[in-house]
């Protein structure tokens, strides 16, 4: 993926203009947000920047009961927003959007897939393999190179490289996930909290 120019600024010491890429911004934000999220017993599931919007997705760590509450989202949004305003990792105007990954969550990294072993996933390929471009089935394995899944329609095992995957997500199976505990409001991935920073030109 080609980096998008986010902000150019003059570095007086080097006498040159440094360009901040999306990767640079994301890593700076991750370094600031990760300790805050971890202190709340959560973790960063995903973080991306799209058209000036920093999308921070939080979740419970693997092996723990799932269910990020609306209060969790509001608190993370408030604390991370304050940290970003103080450290200013991305000069200019941007919007921070905090949410949970939801019941049918996107799978974009090897770690995402590794969290979902033995769950049903849906995969769309860049190009058809064996005359198939859309796959659905139980995720059997995931490593740094690709995944193996048992296809729903044939019951056969199929291995797929990450390079061949255009996009993927989990498939919610009713009854497979426990609802949020009593007194909790699960976000279900449908709610988010937004904070916008504006800088006068």
**Secondary-structure element string:** EEHEEHEHEEEEEE
CATH superfamily of the largest domain: RimP-like superfamily, N-terminal
User: What class would the helix/strand composition place it in?
Assistant: alpha+beta
Number of E-type strands: 11
> Using only CA atoms, what is the Rg?
19 Å
Largest sheet: 5 strands, antiparallel
Output the strand order for the largest sheet: 9-8-7-6-10
Summarize the structure.
This protein is of the alpha+beta class. The chain is built from three helices and eleven strands.
SSE layout and pairing:
Layout: E1 7-11, E2 16-20, H1 22-39, E3 43-50, E4 53-59, H2 70-87, E5 94-99, H3 110-115, E6 120-129, E7 132-142, E8 146-151, E9 157-161, E10 165-170, E11 192-197
Parallel strand pairs: 4-5
Antiparallel strand pairs: 1-2, 3-4, 5-11, 6-7, 6-10, 7-8, 8-9
Helix pairs in contact: 1-2
Provide a descriptive summary of the structure in words.
- It is a single chain.
- This protein has about 200 residues and is an alpha+beta fold.
- It has three helices and eleven strands.
- The chain has helices at about 20-40, 70-85, 110-115; strands at about 5-10, 15-20, 45-50, 55-60, 95-100, 120-130, 130-140, 145-150, 155-160, 165-170, 190-195.
- A five-stranded antiparallel β-sheet has the order 9-8-7-6-10. The chain has a four-stranded mixed β-sheet with strand order 3-4-5-11, covered by helices on one side. Strands 1-2 form a two-stranded antiparallel ribbon.
- α1 packs across α2.
- The longest helix has 18 residues, at about 20-40.
- It starts with 6 loop residues before the first strand and ends with a strand.
- Residues about 1-20 and about 180-185 have low confidence and may be disordered.
């Amino acid at each position: 993926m080609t980096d998008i120019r986010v902000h150019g600024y003059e570095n007086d010491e080097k006498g040159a203009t440094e360009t901040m890429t999306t990767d640079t911004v994301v890593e700076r934000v991750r370094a600031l947000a990760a300790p805050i999220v971890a202190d709340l017993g959560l973790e960063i599931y995903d973080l991306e920047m799209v058209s000036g919007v920093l999308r921070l997705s939080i979740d419970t760590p693997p092996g723990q009961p799932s269910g990020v509450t609306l209060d969790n989202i509001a608190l993370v949004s408030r604390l991370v927003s304050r940290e970003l305003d103080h450290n200013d990792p991305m000069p200019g105007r941007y919007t921070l959007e905090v949410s949970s990954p939801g019941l049918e969550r996107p799978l974009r990294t090897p770690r995402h897939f590794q969290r979902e072993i033995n769950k049903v996933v849906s995969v769309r390929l860049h190009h058809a393999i064996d005359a198939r471009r859309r796959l659905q089935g139980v995720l059997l394995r995931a490593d740094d190179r690709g995944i193996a899944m048992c296809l729903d329609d044939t019951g056969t095992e199929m291995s797929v490289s990450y390079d061949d995957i255009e996009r993927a997500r989990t498939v919610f199976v009713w009854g497979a996930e426990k609802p949020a505990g009593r007194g909790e409001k699960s976000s279900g991935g449908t709610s988010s909290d937004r904070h916008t920073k504006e800088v006068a030109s």
